[in-house]
Amino acid sequence: VQLVESGGGSVQSGGSLRLSCAASGYPRSTYCMGWFRQPPGKEREGVAVIDSDGSTNYADSVKGRFTISRDNAKNTLYLQMNSLNSTDTAMYYCAAGRRCYEFTYWGHGTQVTVSS
After folding, report:
1. What Å distances lie between residue 7 and 17, 24, 26, 27, CA to CA?
2. How many CB atoms lie within 10 A of CB 90?
3. Which of 21, 26, 69, 83 could form a disulfide with 77 if both were Cys (CB 3.0 to 4.6 A apart)?
4. Is 29 helix (H, G, I), strand (E, B) or coil?
5. Are the C-beta atoms of 93 and 36 separated by less than 8 Å?
6. Both ends of the chain: CA-CA distance in Å?
């Protein structure tokens, strides 16, 4: 099982980024997938999840700004991030699991830095 994130980088406040997570090694279309992040000096927190039926859930802090999506044909998870601000600065991780409350597989992360 492998999850490989990409798309992170440095952006100015108000800008946008799209993260991608390429998945391989398991029945991806039946799994719940999600994005998590860990800001500097803080604990990891959930950002958004998308279940196998396409239903989504977002942290209050990103609602209306971030959009999670998945392309099962490409085995890829996405996170479109708009209106970024400094509080979005973090290492972003992709995760997958059989249930949205139990993530078993994790990527190594991609760094997002937002400057004001």
Report:
1. 7, 18, 23, 24
2. 22
3. 21
4. helix
5. yes
6. 37
